[in-house]
Structures are given as structure tokens and as C-alpha cells.
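#lab-general

N.A. 3:47 PM
ok so I finally got the sequence cleaned up, no stray characters, all 356 residues accounted for. can someone with queue access submit it? mine expired

B.Y. 3:52 PM
send it over

N.A. 3:53 PM
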Amino acid sequence: MGLLTKSSRMTTGYGSLSRRCVRYATAGTRRTIRPVENLRQTFRVVRRVTMHYVGGVDETLDRPAHVRAASGITWFGQHLATVSDDTSFVGLVDPVSGRTQPITIPHAPAQRRQFDTRRGNKADKLDLECVISVEGRLVAFGSDNGLAVRQQVVVIDNATLLPRVVALPRLYEALRQPVLGRGVLNLEGAAVSGDTLVLGNRGGDIGNDAVPTVDAVTRLPVSTFLRLIDDPHGAPLPSIEWHPLHLGHLGGTPLHLTELEAIGDALAFAATAEATTSAYDDGHVTGSVVGWIHGAMSSSCQVEWCHVIDEHGAPLVAKLEGLVFDASTGNMLATVDADDPDRPSELLELAIVRDR
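B.Y. 4:20 PM
back already:
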């Protein structure tokens, strides 16, 4: 996710949400941010397009015709930069048409850039789950998932669009902390707010103690992070403090964090209810929600989420993994990860609907 400045449109469009959030804090213990389910507002799909690569299939690069498993988006000028969790491509997307200019990542074990269970190479993927635009660079994050190949970031210079893969094992090791639980680290959200990088862990991975990991957010200075990219082995590490989140349930299935987006002084987030106890394996999706975290790093906080419905008013049964605010419309844009290599990922426009 990228940095967005607060506008009057955003204030009038979303300010009512923050006014109805409730505060929760615990004294003397690590606090858990608890959710408020907003039943007076929903996000409705008002437009959707599929994302297809300009130039279509390229067998020499092992590129599919469409964007697969779009797992994160951020603004890149008038386009959206999207990453996929099961291919070695970044896409620059026209948000109106869905036409996507591919950028080929130099990660192709056995000359392959598509990864899935059918090919038997799922463990080889970078598993890029989130992306930010910061100081002239796009940076996409591997999830970790306990695999060295996923403890890397992809860095793309905005001027040249040349990608490079940077291993950051020291940073990922620092991010793995007992407060998250004994399961694996699973980075799925990233956002830039001013000079701060906010990262989000998606919980739900069952550790050897049979307890699922927790959803949580942490922050670190952008300057420290960029120094690590330039000097992975020698740059100083930031201090890491995770702040756990409790996002509740949807349809009886726990919600877990899938994306973060900075809007003014608040964090928007997407979360999905997926029947899985593993950060590695996919499961049946019940649906997704979109909400806000206010003051996530302070002594008090506000958390609220809204249901998402389709064009016909039915609950949207989809895994929302990318999320950005569109200042030109006042709506949100979200990407869908269908966890199906044959289905093009969709870009959805979400408008807030208030009950009278």
C-alpha cells in the first residue's frame, strides 16, 4: 500500500466511521485491539474488471495471459502496481480497463515463474503478499512462512522499472517474535504513513502448541528499512514491537488480516474469513470485510469493520487481498485472490453504503 494524504472528500466519506468506533485498552498488559462490527454501513461492489497482461501469454518467460492471485496493490502514478503471490511478475494496472503491463521478476527456479500445487513447485515461490511505493521505489514483500525464499523483497526503481530481489533474513528474523505465537510469520499487509512503515502479520497459523498465531501490526522507520535494502548485512536493525489485533469472525470463521492502507492518520485494512489453519495452505473462503484501525500504536485504539456485498446486495464471497483508496472517486479499490491459477484476478471498486 502507498501513502495517501487526507482530503476533505475522505473526511466526509469516512469520518463517520471513526466517530462510532469504540476504544479498548488493557492496563499493564499487552493490549488486544477488539473489533466493532458496523451494521449501519457496508461496502458495495459498484464496478469490477479482470486484469490481463498486455501481450498475453509469453511462454519464454512462463507468463500467463492474466494476473494470477493478486495479493497486494499500491498507487504508481495514475496506475496501480499489483503483486501476485504465485508468480514472478509485478503488474502496472490501468484501473479503468484492467490492462496490465507486466514487469518480469528475476526469480525463475527451473525457468519457471508460475508456482502452484499442480506444478509441484509451490514452495519455490517468493509469495509476494504486499507492496508499497516509497521514495522512488516499489517494494514488494515476501510473506516469510518459515521459508528462506520468502524472506526477500523485490525492489523496483520507479525511473528504470528494473527489478531486483533482495534477501533480508536479518529483518525477517527480527520480525519473528513470541508474541505472535509459535506458528510462522505471515506478512500480508504493508503501508507507509509519513516516515513510518507499518507491517501486518496475518494470524491463524497453528504452531506446535496447537495455538494459532495472532494478527498484529508493527511499525519501523522508513529510513531504517531503506538502509536495510541497500545494506542487508550491515545496516542496523530496527526495534520491533508487535501490537496484536482481534478481528472477530465472519460466518463462524475467524477473520485474519490480508492488507493495510494508510489514509491520513488512520489505517484501513482488509481481512478474510478462510477455513485454514496454515499460512501455507489455502482454504474455503466465507467472505471478507473492510475496516479501520485508529491509534493502532498508541495506548488506546479504535477498530471497526464493515461487511462487503456484491452488485446485487448479496454477501461477497471472495478473498480481498489488495486495498487502496481512490481519491478521484472517494471509493476503495480492492483485488481478489481467487486461489485458482486459471481465473484472472479481479479489481473491484467498493462504495460505502449507509442505511437510512
